[in-house]
User: Which sequence fits this backbone?
């Protein structure tokens, strides 16, 4: 099956570009978020390609004035992975790893946009994520991450928000490999579905620095995938510093699995740093497909489908297990190089099952 992608010298197997191995869970995804410095305005975008399912989908979601506005799109892509347009939503790679443009054409919902992300540094490659349930690969993927600054505009109803690169920062990632996508497996692993997952991801932007820190822990609180990096931004003369000893500590919102404050102590032979967050408003990742029962990533909605939703955040049950996965907008402090740098970032959280390091027990039991 030949497609326009075959005219590019990107083949890594004897197959046409339309074919991606034999694992039906193979995916290729873009993620973006952006926020104002005071956290009053936040948006996120997901855009996924699922070659074995022949599906391309995406979502654009904005939090402003106490509401989370959501647009979802899905199409059957007929093998063409380079046509990064689904209904009104499109992605343009203006300059790879440097400049990306996202457009949301006027549609029958409240959201529209024309925004550009200018990255602030070279990409960070996170360690390969490989996790099995018994003999079954649950996930096996690679991700690159970059922080950047936004320009352009986002329309919400009759209001247009102008993004200024001096005031609107964010993070983008690209991941590809294997994750559960589409419909649930009709024959799950003999050991059952995953019952423990501790995920914390905390990219942050500062005037002259960017920080990346994440951890995936097992039930004993031991990290099976963890990395922390500080790098110079906007041409600052600071190479990426990798921290070998990374220790997060937490305080929690009462009777929940939500982080209130986070402190990460990072040590290396090149020096030490401390990253601190005080979490604020919650962005529900279900708004861009994560854990959504109907609009999960890779679900088939026919040749083309566009849907809209608005969450009134004042009425949301934050303890609803369907809304476990969040990004909490957070002012950030980085103590590094003899100074305290102030910035902004997110504290992404998905905590399922026990975790000895925090005292979590059961599947979803809240902390005291």
Assistant:
């Amino acid at each position: 099956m030949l497609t326009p992608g075959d005219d590019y010298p990107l083949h890594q197997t004897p197959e046409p570009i339309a074919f991606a191995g034999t694992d039906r869970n193979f995916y290729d995804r873009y993620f973006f978020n952006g926020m104002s410095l005071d956290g009053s305005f936040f948006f996120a975008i997901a855009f996924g390609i699922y070659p074995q399912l022949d599906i391309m989908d995406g979502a654009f979601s904005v939090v402003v004035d106490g509401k989370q506005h959501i647009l979802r799109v899905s199409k059957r892509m007929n093998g063409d992975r380079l046509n990064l347009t689904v209904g009104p939503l499109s992605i343009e790679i203006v300059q790879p790893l440097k400049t990306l443009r996202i457009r949301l054409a006027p549609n029958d919902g409240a959201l529209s946009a024309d925004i550009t992300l200018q990255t602030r540094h070279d990409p960070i490659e996170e360690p390969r994520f490989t996790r099995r349930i018994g003999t079954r690969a649950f996930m096996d993927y690679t991700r690159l991450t970059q922080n950047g600054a936004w320009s352009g505009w986002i329309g919400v109803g009759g209001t247009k928000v102008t993004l200024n690169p001096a005031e609107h920062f964010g993070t983008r990632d690209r991941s590809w490999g294997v994750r559960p996508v589409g419909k649930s497996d009709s024959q799950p692993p003999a050991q059952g579905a995953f019952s423990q997952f501790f995920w914390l991801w905390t990219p942050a932007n500062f005037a002259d620095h960017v920080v990346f820190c994440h951890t995936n822990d097992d039930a004993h609180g031991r990290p099976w995938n963890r990395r922390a990096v500080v790098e110079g931004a906007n041409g600052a003369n600071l190479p990426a510093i990798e921290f070998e000893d990374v220790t997060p500590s937490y305080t929690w919102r009462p009777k929940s699995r939500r982080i209130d404050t986070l402190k990460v102590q990072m040590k290396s032979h090149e020096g030490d740093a401390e990253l601190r967050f005080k979490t604020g408003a919650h962005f529900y990742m279900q708004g861009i497909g994560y854990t959504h029962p109907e609009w999960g990533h890779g679900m088939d909605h026919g040749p083309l489908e566009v849907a809209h939703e608005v969450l009134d955040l004042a009425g949301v049950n934050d303890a609803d297990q369907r809304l476990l996965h969040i990004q909490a907008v957070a002012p950030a402090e980085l103590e590094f190089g003899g100074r305290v740098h102030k910035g902004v970032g997110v504290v992404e959280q998905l905590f399922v099952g026990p975790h000895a390091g925090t005292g979590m027990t059961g599947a979803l039991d809240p902390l005291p």
